[in-house]
Amino acid sequence: MAQDDFRRAIPRTDALLAEPAVAEASAALGHTVVRGVIRQIQDQARRGDIAPTKVLDHVIAALNTTRSSSLTPVLNGTGVLIHTNLGRAPLSKAAQSAVSDAAGYVDLEMDLDTGVRSRRATALRQALLEAVPAAQDALVVNNCAAALLLVSTALGANGPMVISRGELIEIGAGFRLPELMGSAGTELVEIGATNRTHLADYAAALQEPVGAVLKMHPSNYVVRGFTAEVSTTELAKLCAEKQVPLVVDIGSGLLAPEPLLPNEPDFSTALADGADLVLASGDKLLGGPQAGIILGCKELIGHLARHPIARAVRADKLTIAALEATVRAGTSPIKEALHTDLDALRSRTEKLGAALNVPVVEHDGRVGGGGGVEVPLPGVALKLPEALAQPLRTGTPAILTRVKDGACLLDLRCIEEEYDEQICAILSDALNQLD
Ligand SMILES: *Cc1c(COP(=O)(O)O)cnc(C)c1O
């Protein structure tokens, strides 16, 4: 075929766009993305890498593996429940469907019965108050850092915030409590010592007018040895006497105590112990979307909600939808992974191990994301050659494993069982490629 004829034989863009399969992909991915894929395949055909008659097949195949965003779904084989680099908590099916419903036009701030404007997030607020009866009111913002920013700006206007030197935490990736509060112009009064703070230290600080007392859960570390801290109950008594708000940041967002994580604070207990405001993240142990949840006293929450910063840190409709669904469901993939039945995990893993002829080893999962620090979650893992980690990470679906002591460990705790067959096929291929 002459060069010109060859080029003419390559299907034109409009002809390809008119193909039903391509038109369907166009509706899902958008014209620009589809045109980009078509152009790439046509270029390959012009270079002679693809026969002109095969262009349509290649376009369809390429569109089938094209996603509308470049975020790649990952199977979390690390055994770490809340993996910050993997977007923390995975949403439940219920939350995903709520997000999908909320993605279009939605009655976010309208009462459809009357057609009159209504308050934002009323159903979410109701769900939170039903789940945590000790709370009088609720406010949801962008994340827990935003909740701290709002609280320290709004309450810090009345005076400095009092905090123990043992709780001036850094969470990671640029989050240092004193720097965050400093950036809001809030003055901090640091009391006590790194390892020991006493009620008398708080009492001395409250001799002067202050904005609030802040108690932080030191999520990602433990102070051990010669230590002393003041409980929420004791602090609440002192703060009530001095009429100073007590704000407790519990970090991980458990709504009620979790027997498997006895040292992890929760909303219900902190409020029952007398905290005026309790703050936490939505995407840690609560297992929902990124959010900052503030529960507590009606008057203080009203004050926060009316502050101008509240508008700058408010949650969007997708978050509101996902969080309501998560709270109402009362369970989440995170909670299920935490409560994984060890026998079931072992039998799934051994089945894969036997099929692939690779050993199964004891492996502790972890809560991660600054929760349940130092608490092992006993389990098992497949022990694979270390060289497998990279191809598994870059495969489809991507599988993230834990590389440790020269091995690649695959822990199924955070992976739904429905993927086991697919994982078995992927591992079998990857092991064959190694040989
Ligand atoms: C994780 C954490 C935060 C930060 O929460 P984000 O939702 O990531 O902003 C704040 N305080 C504590 C105690 C935490 O554990």
Nutshell version of this structure?
By secondary structure, this protein is of the alpha/beta class.
How would you sum up this structure, described in words?
The protein contains 19 helices and 17 strands. The model has no long low-confidence stretch (mean pLDDT 94). The chain starts with a helix and ends with a helix. It has helices at 3-9, 13-18, 20-29, 31-46, 55-64, 93-102, 122-131, 144-156, 177-183, 199-205, 232-242, 267-272, 298-306, 308-312, 317-329, 333-338, 342-356, 389-394, 420-434; strands at residues 74-76, 110-111, 116-117, 137-141, 161-164, 170-172, 175-176, 188-191, 212-216, 246-251, 277-281, 292-296, 360-362, 380-385, 398-400, 402-404, 407-410. Helix 7 packs parallel to helix 15 (317-329) and helix 17 packs parallel to helix 19. Pyridoxal-5'-phosphate is lined by residues 143-145, 171, 175, 216-217, 219, 249, 251, 281, 292, 370. Its EC number is 2.9.1.1.
